[in-house]
Amino acid sequence: MYLLVLCTCPDTKAAELISRALVEEKLAACVNIMPGITSVYRWQGNVEFDTEVQLLIKTASEKYSLLEEKIKNLHPYETPEIIALNIQQGDKHYLNWITESLKENS
């Protein structure tokens, strides 16, 4: 099964650091970095508005635990957003590319 993992970062520097590590370590096939999103959330009793960078991470379910651990180790937030969504359907060539990109010996 394939996953789309969402993760917000405080800035491009953190987003690039996490993205590079995930792809280099074959925990993700691809990460899209989407700058300039506005997040509205409750934190420590206050409603916060922040500009953040959204990561869209494509991976396989068997890589999720290691991917989550790597994000937590690199992320500057105390509680980073790490949400995995199952990819129900997709182009078979793209999904095969994800599989090939995550192989240890490729």
Structure description:
This protein is an alpha+beta fold and 106 residues long. The chain has 3 helices and 4 strands. It has helices at 12-24, 64-74, 92-101, and strands spanning 2-9, 30-43, 46-60, 83-87. Helix 1 (12-24) runs antiparallel to helix 2. The longest helix has 13 residues, at 12-24. The two termini are 20 Å apart.
Shape: elongated
Total domains: 1
Major beta sheet, specifics?
4 strands, antiparallel
**Computed Rg:** 14 Å
Using the coordinates shown, work out and report the CATH topology.
Alpha-Beta Plaits
The CATH architecture comes to 2-Layer Sandwich
Q: How are the strands ordered across the major sheet? A: 2-3-1-4
CATH top level class name: Alpha Beta
H/I helix tally: 3
What is the string of SSEs from the N terminus onward? Answer: EHEEHEH
Q: Got a strand count?
A: 4
Strand content: 35-45%
Topology, element by element:
Blueprint: E1 2-9, H1 12-24, E2 30-43, E3 46-60, H2 64-74, E4 83-87, H3 92-101
Antiparallel strand pairs: 1-3, 1-4, 2-3
Helix pairs in contact: 1-2
Protein name: Divalent-cation tolerance protein CutA
GO molecular function: copper ion binding
Family: Belongs to the CutA family.
